[in-house]
Design goal:
globular, Aspartate Aminotransferase, domain 2, Aspartate Aminotransferase, domain 1, alpha/beta, single chain
């Protein structure tokens, strides 16, 4: 990753077709656009690729989460369980619906721990969002079984795992719906953009309307502006240029994943030089999208020392225990109740009472895992020179 590594003539061709029509808006202008509907075609092909019946494109992976939650009926006073190792967008979307994020522990998959999930379910739980972090699957079948037992819908946050599978079945198709991100650093990218897939026609239709101000999209003689509206919505529409890039990138996705798998294997072989190293538990190694290589050292002290040597030799790894974008104890704006709302929302109710308090020590099992974890992002293109540099750095780190 990311997909911009393989931008080429395919993307240019798709974009050129849009520019030739002059229509950037995904709806209307049938005469001018000459039958070219890039976003609609992207939705159809992405859903088909994943083995889902319906796809709804939106402006970002964050928007996909918000649209999915809204369509599931999540609102004020509800609780939504997710995990404490994820990008901030997951819980931002929960708050934006008026609900309260509840954080579960992760396990050695670096994804939601099903056992801790079940402990966190309450009568207020209205949705569960497991996150397939860093391109590899959560224990999604166990999670869905628990959710089904309690009658709670699962929204799979598949932002980082497009093309990943379990036993041939695409991630994002196990729950009620699955969301994807196509931002600038994803394996397939549209610069910004996202997608929601589902087999539920009613849910898809609700999402389609919500992301376009609630317009019902029924053909009408008055054209745009003559639609009916069953509920209020918002604007999360993807534009045609993004859809065009998405079509080209989707056509390359399997090849990109194959390249990442090859490069991940080479990096993993190099990491094996370090004594005592172990690797992330991948639920289905064959279905891994191979966007990241995560490995564990025996303890936090060893992990930090190894990474210092790697940094000194130009091959530093990501130490997520210090990462402020993806790790619960480092979310200072969440822990500090920082908001632009003068009344303190979403941390306070209108009467000024606290709605929620987040303890930075609340996820000790996750901390014990991430404190000793190092991660390499796996590129689509990995030159021999760069691989040799990383290998040499790991050889020096092995002496620590």
């Amino acid at each position: 990753m990311p997909g911009f590594e393989v931008f080429g003539e395919e993307e240019k061709k798709e974009i050129h077709e849009v520019l030739e029509t002059g229509v950037l808006f995904r709806y209307e202008f049938p005469e001018q656009r000459q039958g070219i509907y890039k976003v609609r075609t992207f939705e159809e092909r992405f859903a088909q690729y994943c083995g889902a019946k319906y796809g709804q494109a939106v402006t970002s992976g964050t928007a996909a989460l918000k649209v999915g939650l809204a369509a599931l009926g999540v609102g004020a006073g509800d609780e939504v369980i997710t995990q404490g190792f994820t990008f901030v967008a997951t819980w931002e979307a929960i708050f934006d619906c008026g609900a309260v994020p509840v954080f579960a522990e992760i396990d050695d998959t670096l994804n939601m721990n099903p056992a801790d999930l079940e402990k966190k379910i309450t009568p207020k739980t209205r949705a569960i969002i497991p996150v397939h972090m860093m391109g590899a699957p959560a224990r999604i079948e166990e999670i869905v079984a628990i959710a089904d037992k309690h009658g709670i819908p699962v929204l799979e946050d598949t932002a980082q795992a497009a093309g990943a599978r379990i036993n041939g079945r695409h991630l994002g198709t196990f729950g009620k719906c699955g969301t994807f991100s196509f931002d600038a650093v994803k394996t397939m990218t549209t610069g910004e953009g996202g997608m929601i897939i589902t087999d539920d026609e009613e849910l898809w239709r609700t999402m389609s309307e919500y992301q376009d101000h609630g317009h019902d999209h029924v053909q009408n003689p008055g054209g745009r502006g003559g639609e009916g509206r069953s509920f209020i919505g918002f604007n999360y529409r993807m534009m045609e240029l993004q859809g065009a890039i998405g079509l080209a990138q989707l056509g390359k996705l399997d090849d990109m994943i194959a390249a990442q798998k090859k490069n991940k294997a080479a990096l993993q072989e190099a990491v094996l030089q370090i004594r005592g190293v172990t690797f992330r538990n991948i639920v289905d190694a064959k279905g891994d999208s191979a966007t990241f290589l995560a490995f564990f050292l025996p303890n936090a002290e060893k992990a930090k020392k190894v990474n210092e040597v790697l940094k000194e030799n130009g091959a530093g790894a990501v130490y997520f225990a210090d990462n402020s974008w993806h790790y619960y104890p480092k979310w200072e704006h969440l822990l500090g109740n920082k908001t632009l709302a003068k009344n303190g929302w979403p941390f306070k109710d209108q009467d000024g009472r606290r709605r929620v308090i987040y303890d930075p020590e609340a996820l000790p099992a996750s901390a014990a895992i991430l404190d000793r974890c190092l991660v390499y992002q796996v590129p689509i293109k990995l030159g021999n020179e760069r691989l040799a540099q990383i290998t040499a750095a790991l050889e020096k780190a092995a002496a620590v």
